[in-house]
C-alpha cells in the first residue's frame, strides 16, 4: 500500500496557507493509502517557545486534523517527540548530509537572516535532516506538502541515494505531492512572499480568526490598479485571492473570473471575506468541541505514538545494524 507521511510545526497558529496547501487534502488519502500525520514539535525548538504555548499549539494541531476529517481509526496521528526514533535517526543522517547541501536551503537562509544573533542555532541549520528522518523512517512514498517544503524533500532524496549506495537498499525516495490549485498561498499584503504565521498580522488569515478579522483582512488585501479579476502573472495579488477563493469553494478559477467580469475588486473581496469567514466559522465550532476533550486527544496520540514507533523502531534497528551500532 502507498504510504503517506506529513507533518506540521506548532510554531504559531495555523493559517489558511497551511490549510489550503496541505491539511485540506490529508483526509482524502486515508481511504486508500496508509497515512501518518504528525505534529513536528521538535522542529519548533529552533525558536524559543513558551512551554505552555508549545503544548497548547501541539494539541491545537491534533484537534484541527480531527476537525478536517483525519480519522484516527484510518490514519496514524502522533507527536514527533513521542516517537524517539525521530531524534535518533536525525543524528545518524547528519553524517550523510553535506554542509554544501544545507548551505543551499533557501528556508534556512531566509530564517537565519531574520532570526537575529540569538537565533543562529545549529538546530535551524540541521532542521532539514530531522525532516528527512521523519519521512525516511516510514518508507514514505508520498509527502503532501506546500511548495516551500519541496527543497527539503530533494535533500531527503539525496540522503537516500547516498546512504543506499553505501549500505544497500535501506530507505525509499519520498516524493512531494503538491496541491494543484494552492501549492503556495501568498501574503495578503505582499504577493511576492509566502503567507506565513511568522509575518505581520494583516498578511495572513488564521484558522482561528474571528469573522470580523477575516472580512477586514480581505477588504484590506492588496490588489493592483487594473480593477479586473483575472488570474495572470501581471496580477499576482489578485491571482492569489482567486486561488484562495477557488480553494475554499472548489469553483474553478475561470468560473470565478467570469462571475466577477463586470464588477470591480470591492465586490470580489467582500464575497471572498464572507466565504472564508463562513467556512472557518463552521470549522471553528467543530474545532472547539474536539479541542475541549484533551483526554481523548491524549488517547489518540498514545495509540498513534505506539503504531508509529513500531514502524520507526524497526527501520532504526535496520539502520543501526548496517552501521555497526549496538
Ligand atoms: P509548516 O508547519 O511550516 O507547514 C505545514 C504545511 O503547510 C504548508 N504551507 C503552505 N502551503 C501553501 N501555502 C502556504 N503559504 C503555506 N504555508 C505552509 C507547508 O508546505 C507544509 O506542508 N518542515 C515542515 C514540517 C515538517 C514536515 C516533516 C512536513 C517536519 N517534518 C516531514 C512533511 C514531512 C514545516 O515547517 O511545515
The CATH superfamily of the largest domain turns out to be HUPs
Structural class of the helix and strand makeup? mainly alpha
Strand order of the largest sheet: 1-2-3
CATH 2nd-level architecture of the largest domain: 3-Layer(aba) Sandwich
> Domains counted in the coordinates: how many?
2
Task: Give me the secondary-structure topology.
Layout: E1 3-8, H1 16-29, E2 34-39, H2 51-67, E3 76-79, H3 85-94, H4 99-103, H5 106-114, H6 122-136, E4 142-144, H7 150-167, E5 175-177, H8 211-220, H9 236-249, H10 253-259, H11 265-292, H12 294-323
Parallel strand pairs: 1-2, 2-3, 4-5
Helix pairs in contact: 2-11, 3-6, 3-12, 6-7, 8-11, 9-11
Bound molecules: tryptophanyl-5'AMP.
Tryptophanyl-5'AMP (TYM) binds next to strand 1, helix 1 and helix 6.
3D structure, described in words:
By secondary structure, the chain is mainly alpha-helical. The protein folds into two domains: 3-183 and 294-323, 3-Layer(aba) Sandwich (Rossmann fold); 201-288, Orthogonal Bundle (Tyrosyl-Transfer RNA Synthetase), CATH 1.10.240. It has helices at residues 16-29, 51-67, 85-94, 99-103, 106-114, 122-136, 150-167, 211-220, 236-249, 253-259, 265-292, 294-323; strands spanning 3-8, 34-39, 76-79, 142-144, 175-177. α3 packs parallel to α12. The chain is globular. The model has no long low-confidence stretch (mean pLDDT 96). Bound molecules: tryptophanyl-5'AMP (TYM). Tryptophanyl-5'AMP (TYM) is lined by residues 5-9, 17-18, 21-22, 40, 43, 131, 134-135, 143, 145-146, 148-149, 182-185, 194-195.
Amino acid at each position: 500500500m502507498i504510504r503517506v507521511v506529513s507533518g506540521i510545526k506548532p510554531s504559531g497558529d495555523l493559517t489558511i496557507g497551511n490549510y489550503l496547501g496541505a491539511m485540506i487534502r490529508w483526509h482524502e488519502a486515508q481511504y486508500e493509502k496508509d497515512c501518518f500525520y504528525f505534529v513536528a514539535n521538535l522542529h519548533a525548538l529552533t525558536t524559543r517557545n513558551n512551554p505552555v504555548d508549545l503544548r497548547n499549539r501541539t494539541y491545537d494541531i491534533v484537534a484541527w486534523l480531527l476537525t478536517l476529517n483525519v480519522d484516527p481509526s484510518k490514519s496514524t496521528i502522533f507527536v514527533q517527540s513521542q516517537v524517539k526514533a525521530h531524534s535518533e535517526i536525525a543524528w545518524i543522517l547528519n553524517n550523510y548530509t553535506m554542509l554544501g547541501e544545507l548551505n543551499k536551503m533557501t528556508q534556512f537562509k531566509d530564517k537565519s537572516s531574520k532570526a537575529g544573533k540569538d537565533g543562529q542555532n545549529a538546530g535551524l541549520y540541521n532542521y532539514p535532516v530531522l525532516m528527512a528522518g521523519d519521512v525516511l523512517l516510514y518508507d514514505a512514498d508520498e509527502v503532501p506538502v506546500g511548495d516551500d517544503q519541496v527543497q527539503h524533500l530533494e535533500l531527503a532524496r539525496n540522503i537516500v541515494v547516498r546512504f543506499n549506495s553505501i549500505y544497500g537498499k535501506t530507505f525509499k525516495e519520498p516524493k512531494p505531492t503538491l496541491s494543484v490549485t494552492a501549492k503556495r498561498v501568498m501574503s495578503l499584503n505582499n504577493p511576492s512572499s509566502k503567507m506565513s504565521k511568522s509575518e505581520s498580522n494583516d498578511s495572513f488569515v488564521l484558522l482561528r480568526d474571528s469573522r470580523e478579522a477575516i472580512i477586514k483582512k480581505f477588504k484590506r488585501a492588496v490588489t493592483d490598479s487594473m480593477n479586473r479579476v483575472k488570474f495572470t502573472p501581471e496580477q499576482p495579488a489578485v491571482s492569489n485571492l482567486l486561488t484562495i477563493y477557488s480553494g475554499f469553494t472548489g469553483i474553478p478559477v475561470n468560473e470565478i473570473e467570469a462571475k466577477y467580469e463586470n464588477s470591480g475588486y470591492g465586490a470580489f473581496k467582500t464575497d471572498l471575506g464572507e466565504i472564508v469567514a463562513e467556512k472557518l466559522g463552521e470549522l471553528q465550532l467543530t474545532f472547539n468541541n474536539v479541542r475541549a476533550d484533551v483526554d481523548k486527544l491524549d488517547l489518540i496520540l498514545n495509540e498513534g505514538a505506539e503504531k508509529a514507533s513500531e514502524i520507526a523502531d524497526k527501520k532504526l534497528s535496520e539502520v543501526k545494524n548496517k552501521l555497526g551500532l549496538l
